Amino acid sequence: MSLLIKNALVFMGGRFEKSDVYIDAPFIRTVSPSIPSNRADRIIDCKDKYFLIPGFADVHVHLREPGFFYKETIKSGTAAAAKAGYTAVCTMPNLDPVPDCPENLKAQTDIIKKDAAIDVFPFGTITKGRKGKGECVDFSSLKSKVIGFSDDGTGVQSEELMLEAMKKCAELGCIISAHCEDNGLLRGGYIHDGEYCKAHGHRGICSESEWKQIERDCALAEKTGCRYHVCHISTKESVDIIRKAKARGIKVTCETAPHYLTLCDEDLKEDGAFKMNPPLRSREDMQALIEGVRDGTIDVIATDHAPHSVEEKSKGLEKSAMGIVGLETAFPVLYTKLVKTGAVTLERLVEMMSIKPREIFGIEGGEIKEGSPADLCLLDLEREWTVDPDKFLSKGRATPYKGERLNGKNLLTLLRGEIVYEAL
Predict the structure, then answer these.
(1) Which of 61, 121, 165, 190 could lock onto 305 through a cystine, CB 3.0 to 4.6 A?
(2) pTM recorded for the entire structure
């Protein structure tokens, strides 16, 4: 079926322009101010108010399958992603079996081929068993089958081991996407070591547990020439270290998540929906992250979508599992709390959610032009709605935004010209 999207505000060349877009799957065939309506099987008139952008790409999600299907499945997680406007996600390796060899990886890719609503690109692990210690995986055997290498959920504890991994990945042209966490500095903590922690008798996670490994790894990336991506940064020191590393020409990129840009430890409640790793940091850290978004130090916004069962998230701050869901709230949260308040432009937000993730990880798409794959989403920025986790397509329900009024809804998601979600 061919599709004509008329009178849309189309993201092209870093800005929005009123245009028509003609799609004949799998490609965008024509982009023009006026395209005759008789060319298409179906016409969608956006009436100058809907925004057409390249589909979002999330380089950090947990789909929990194989191994933990009671938390999420590839089918439920990608349905949630499609609903939110994502056409590509990269899955983290906290799985069983751990994707540390081609045989184990196949257990995941077989399910992806069968059940995924959108494109899913798995990460392989850095270390065998995703232990953050011991031995590196055989990177060459996994290279062609994965988007990159990560031990997400576990920091690589040994400098020598990370050096070995970076040397090999530099040689192979692969990217390392690092969860940075020094276990020796955790001291049993589970929320940020800040004012809320002290006032309520909790055990804190110090900022140094994150930024110390980033500092180490940036030096190793400089030494090896490895492409190094830092997962979910949360501290002002992390922003500063990465900013300086980029200025020195180190091949470093990074991501943060919507919750670190819009919440801080002042917002904490005695509720597992506010518990994630890294934890919500101080207001000063949050402001430093926003500045990092503005000046380009932070390249990507990824959700770290981390679903758990209701039981696992119902044990308060101390005993609940780490992680919250984020796919179905990411854009509306950021649009409402950052764009509408003037902290960040809409164009910058689209760049960080749709364009840069694809550029860094080599994912196809990211442009609305003739001949490009029609991986798109259509946004109504005026639509107001209330976050109700019971209406999520994800199996996960834990979100700190429950009950909040947000602006911005995805109305249509196209994957190579085929409709994978529609709410028009």
Answers:
(1) 61
(2) 0.97
